[in-house]
Design a protein that fits this description.
Largest sheet: 4 strands, antiparallel
Number of strands: 4
Shape: globular
Strand order of the largest sheet: 2-3-1-4
Strand content: 25-35%
Helix content: 25-40%
Order of helices and strands: EHEEHHE
CATH topology: Alpha-Beta Plaits
CATH architecture: 2-Layer Sandwich
Structural class: alpha+beta
């Protein structure tokens, strides 16, 4: 399983725009055959901070996600609304699978 956590800071005036476009990306992503989870979170203490939690069955599935129409549309739309470049980190699953 491949997990990526993406941290995004959005300009205040584009929070609703970001939520709208990200919801569309979410809907497309959860239909991908290799997708296990695609969560979109907004910080309670800083509403401009969003976290995307993406889990795919394999490296190939995670790579295929970046080639989908919904992802490419999302990436192009939201880039100009970001306060700074998004950061993504890959993680290995320890629990529940590997204990």
């Amino acid at each position: 399983m491949i997990v990526t956590i993406v941290n995004v800071y959005v300009k205040k005036e584009h929070i609703e725009d970001f939520i709208r476009e990200t919801a569309l990306n979410h809907k497309g992503s959860i239909k991908e055959p290799e997708n296990l989870r695609f969560d979109v979170l907004q910080s309670q203490s800083d509403p401009t901070n969003f976290v995307l939690y993406e889990a795919y069955r394999s490296e190939e599935g995670a790579k295929a996600h970046k080639e989908t129409t919904h992802y490419l549309k999302w990436k192009e739309a939201v880039e100009k609304w970001m306060d700074k470049p998004r950061q993504s980190n890959r993680y290995n699953i320890i629990a529940p699978n590997n204990l």
